[in-house]
Design goal:
It is a single chain. Helix content is 36%, strand content 24%. It is α+β, with helices and mostly antiparallel strands. The chain folds into four domains: 57 residues, Arc Repressor Mutant, subunit A, CATH 1.10.10.10; 122 residues, 3-Layer(aba) Sandwich (Udp-n-acetylmuramoylalanyl-d-glutamate--2,6- Diaminopimelate Ligase, Chain: A, domain 1), CATH 3.40.1390.20; 117 residues, CBS-domain (Roll), CATH 3.10.580; 114 residues, Thiol Ester Dehydrase, Chain A. The strands form five sheets. It has a five-stranded mixed beta sheet with strand order 4-8-7-6-5, with helices on both faces. A hairpin with a 5-residue loop joins strand 15 and strand 16. It is flat, with a radius of gyration of 27 Å.
């Protein structure tokens, strides 16, 4: 039987797109406490089922597919620009296809405005009405009010009419940044993208016997299985190591590993892979908020996903991407990995920041392992010492040297030079990915 929390989430998911919800109304309709309703609504917001806007409320929005993740809803725009919604609140759930800056004559401007657009413009009231009639939402910059006729038209057409105190340039920059953030999120591979659902995998219950494990093992060739109680809650994991000395009629709850490591659908694949390497785990159960089994993920699944994602074009750039893009890999041990200190890499003193320095050192070591050992790795520990200030536009050379290498780990020493002067060193320990 579903918990009250799960019932509320199912109820929210069943609501029509654009519906408003509130803690008080949910509590009344489903006969739950306001605290339970509040927690469920927050979970729905995390799952991108709803969006909460100050002075508007919480509305049901369309769940974004990965391929359309970069498209913002008008509700998200309101939150980004700290806006006030004057009209068209029922259209806040809609997504904008692009935004247009209103900086020309009306006739010229309207040639660029299409249905689903967001027109960013100041207090040009005739332009507002033309844009709304053309099927576009309007964002009024500079904190200006709008006529009542425009508000009524926005309500009638269900197209948001929003006002913000920011200027046009600032608003465009903020929305551009938000779209880029969405693209980065789109590139982040989550467990929900690759996990094997419960219906397609094998698992055991606490009352099953070791004999049942061996039967499953012979038919599926899997080495481990999640163990569930009577409510489908994951309470353990059983592997070949657990049953090696067990009798056939022993029950699974007597031999399983209790309190296993589990992950959720919103865990990133990179985080899961790091955990699997760190803990030497071949299988992780995927669970929901109540720790009920949703599926599993294996080390092979994770490696395939990471290899596939590394071949995809990058749509959004993180700070790490910007820093790594400046690095020129070494052609041999003597040439070293080169990079020039750019403004993005500096701190408020105008010298290379500690974070950027850490990133380039770790990347140089990873490149050395990929080139020399043909392996993928993740940083386990890094110690940086003997540092000197590195100015903006300095040309730096990094010289990585693999000191130790085993099946599970590698140690790499990296030295950094600025014009033949040693400015920093690092000793980095990497965990190795199995292939």
């Amino acid at each position: 039987m579903a918990t009250k929390h799960e019932q509320i989430l199912s109820y929210i998911e069943s609501l029509p797109i654009g519906d408003k919800i509130s803690v008080r109304q949910i509590a009344k309709d489903l006969t739950v406490s306001e605290g339970t309703a509040y927690r469920a609504i927050k979970e729905a917001e995390n799952r991108r089922l709803v969006s909460t806007i100050e002075r508007v409320g919480t509305i049901r929005i369309e769940v974004k597919r990965k391929e359309n993740f970069e498209r913002l809803t008008f509700a998200e725009v309101v939150n980004i620009v700290d806006g006030i919604v004057f009209g068209g609140k029922s259209g806040l759930h809609k997504s904008l296809s692009k935004f247009v800056i209103g900086a020309m004559q009306v006739d010229d401007m309207m040639r660029y405005v299409d249905p689903g657009n967001l027109l960013i413009v100041g207090n040009r009231y005739k332009v507002h009405e033309h844009a709304l009639k053309a099927g576009a939402a309007v964002l009024v910059t500079g904190g200006f009010d709008v006529p009542e006729s425009s508000k009524r038209l926005a309500d009638e057409l269900e197209l948001p009419l929003i006002s913000t105190s920011y200027d046009t340039f600032t608003v465009a920059t903020m929305i551009n940044r938000a779209i880029d953030d969405q693209l980065i999120k789109k590139d982040v591979l989550l467990i929900e993208d690759i996990f094997i659902p419960k219906e397609q995998t094998a698992y055991l219950h606490v009352t099953d016997t070791v004999e049942k494990y061996r039967e499953l093992n012979s038919t599926t060739s899997h080495g481990g299985y999640p163990v569930l109680d009577s409510k489908d809650v994951v309470v353990g994991v059983v592997t070949a190591r657990d049953v090696i000395d067990a009798q056939s009629m022993d029950t699974i709850d007597k031999v399983m590993t209790k309190n296993p490591i589990v992950i959720t659908l919103t865990t990133s694949v990179a985080a899961a892979s790091h955990r699997m390497v760190w803990e030497s785990i071949d299988l992780l159960p995927v669970v929901d908020d109540s720790n009920r089994l949703k599926g599993i993920i294996s080390r092979q699944d994770v490696l395939k996903a990471l290899q596939a994602s590394s071949r995809q074009p990058q749509n959004g750039e993180t700070i790490d991407d910007l820093i790594k893009s400046q690095m020129t890999p070494a052609t041999d041990e003597k040439s070293g990995t080169a990079f020039t200190v750019t403004p993005q890499m500096t701190n408020h003193f105008g010298t290379l920041s500690y974070g950027a320095f850490t990133t380039v050192l770790a990347e140089a070591g990873s490149q050395a392992l990929r080139t020399k050992k043909r392996i993928e790795s993740v940083v386990e520990n890094i110690t940086i010492y003997h540092t000197k200030p590195v100015p903006l536009e300095a040309n730096i050379k990094l010289y990585p040297k693999v000191l130790d290498f085993t099946r599970r780990m590698a140690k790499v020493d990296v030295e950094a030079y600025n014009d033949k002067q040693l400015v920093g060193k690092a000793l980095i320990t990497y965990q190795i990915f199995d292939h």
